[in-house]
Design goal:
Layout: H1 3-6, H2 13-19, E1 35-43, E2 46-53, E3 61-66, H3 79-85, E4 88-93, H4 110-127, E5 135-140, H5 143-153, E6 158-164, H6 177-181, H7 186-192, H8 199-202, E7 210-215, H9 224-232, E8 238-243, H10 251-255, H11 258-271, H12 283-287, H13 291-300, H14 311-321
Parallel strand pairs: 3-4, 3-5, 5-6, 6-7, 7-8
Antiparallel strand pairs: 1-2, 2-4
Helix pairs in contact: 4-5, 4-13, 13-14
Length: about 350
């Protein structure tokens, strides 16, 4: 079998049935006070559900919450009061086929769907009076892939990343072992195909504060995932909190109040006065962004770039939308790459 064809196995029904355990319910089900339900169109005929937990007092930050593969956006449970007590509103985001989302669960659609969600976030927050608040991403288990991807594609929005038992790589998960044993030559093929999500690779690009909380006895996503992510992360502020004896779903029982002490420290580091939401994005870094990155950044910021013809115009718009954006040190040089000279309208979006 061609390795490229084998790579399609990650979206096969066999893998999806193991990777996802969706639960469905109608919009508005068990909706509490100061909570709001909605959906975001991410593809033709596919809408992703979200629930905004605004809380009764004015929050000081918003947590973009990505749940695990067997959870739903209403499973925050007792955690929501903890978030409220720390002045955090929570925008909980669903996967395809979960809650009242349409479509079928898909590993390879997790990141593209996250980008579409990010485009809608500013308008959702504006609608409920939360626009302009610091935005952070939180991912549990499989949701870590979305939380990290959000920070990479929208560093101007995401000011911190917290991962609870976070997934980093798929190919070495224990759950895949029984499946590959059923297919002759599967292990060799698996070694030849790239990671379908590549979260660990993205960690090197992360520049905002990172908190990793992971049980040392996690039977689903090994503790080694967190160790490797901590080592790979490029952020100046990064913490790995290993919880002795904890498995995949009982971290809170093992570490108790320490969990929230770690979270509070990370929250303060991510939202402290003077911290740039772009992970200290400089004008030069904006200038070096690809056209796709610029389009995603402008969409997520709610900036209309339909009148842009050249990439340089998009750069100028994004710089103007960032707080305290400084002009590039040297504007006299020519294009740094062939893409700089290509009209923005001629470069298609890549899903």
């Amino acid at each position: 079998m061609d390795p490229s064809m084998f790579a399609q196995i990650f979206d096969s029904p066999m893998i999806s049935q193991v990777a996802f355990h969706p639960r469905t319910f109608p919009k508005g089900d068990s909706l509490g006070a100061d909570q709001h339900d909605g959906e975001v169109r991410v593809a033709d005929g596919v809408d992703l559900a979200y629930r905004l937990y605004k809380g009764r007092r004015d929050p000081k930050s918003v947590l973009l919450y990505f749940h695990a593969n067997a959870e739903v956006i209403t499973d925050i449970g007792n955690m929501i009061d903890r978030f409220y007590n720390m002045d955090c509103a929570v925008l909980a985001c669903s996967f395809r086929g979960f809650a009242w989302s349409t479509g079928q669960p898909s590993l390879t659609k997790l990141c593209p769907d996250t980008e579409k969600l990010l485009e809608a976030v500013p308008s959702i927050l504006d609608e409920f009076g939360l626009g302009g608040l610091p935005l952070l991403s939180y991912g549990r288990s499989m949701g870590a892939s979305c939380a990290v991807h959000a920070a990479i594609v929208a560093p101007h929005l995401i000011r911190g990343v917290c991962l609870d038992a976070g997934l980093q790589t798929l190919k070495d998960l224990p759950m895949l072992a029984p499946l590959t044993q059923m297919m002759p030559g599967a292990n060799q093929m698996l070694a030849m195909v790239p990671e379908p999500i590549g979260t660990l690779t993205k960690m090197a690009q992360l520049s905002c504060p990172l908190l990793l909380i992971h049980g040392t006895s996690d039977e689903i996503i090994p503790h080694a995932h967190a160790v490797k992510a901590h080592q790979a992360c490029g952020s100046d502020w990064k913490r790995l909190q290993s919880v002795p004896g904890a498995g995949h779903n009982d971290v809170h029982q093992h570490c108790g109040s320490s969990y929230w002490a770690w979270f509070s420290e990370w929250l303060e580091a991510s939202t402290q006065t003077g911290t740039a939401p772009a992970g200290a994005l400089s004008a030069d870094e904006v200038s070096e962004m690809s056209v796709k990155q610029l389009k995603n950044a402008l969409k997520a910021s709610g900036v209309d770039f339909s009148g842009c013809v050249e990439k340089s115009e998009m750069v100028a718009l994004l710089l103007a939308s960032l707080p305290a954006a400084a002009a590039p040190e040297d504007e006299s040089h020519g294009p740094e790459s062939a893409e700089d000279a290509v009209p923005a309208s001629m470069v298609p979006d890549v899903d």
